[in-house]
Specification:
Layout: E1 23-28, E2 34-37, H1 39-45, E3 54-62, E4 67-73
Antiparallel strand pairs: 1-2, 1-3, 3-4
Length: about 80
């Protein structure tokens, strides 16, 4: 499934070290490096969403089992 995070679930923002709880952005920073970012660090250091920029993921409960998964979403609220 393309819209699902397949790696190890991130626990901390690579920039500020804050714990990842409900959402994160896997994206490129203004310095050109990629990082797992919390929403605030993305707003400060990120370059946007889309191909070659970044993807936003939110935690969702999957029906029929109650398991938690990180699902890619299109908008950065």
């Amino acid at each position: 499934m393309k819209n699902k995070w397949h790696g190890t679930p991130p626990k901390y923002c690579n920039i500020c070290g804050k714990g990842i709880e409900k959402e994160f952005i896997d994206g490129r920073t203004k310095s050109g490096r990629w990082a797992i970012m919390c929403k605030l660090c993305f707003l400060i250091h990120g370059v946007g969403l889309g191909v070659g920029k970044g993807q936003r993921y939110v935690m969702k409960v999957i029906k029929g089992g109650g398991t938690l998964e990180w699902i890619k979403v299109k908008k950065a609220h």
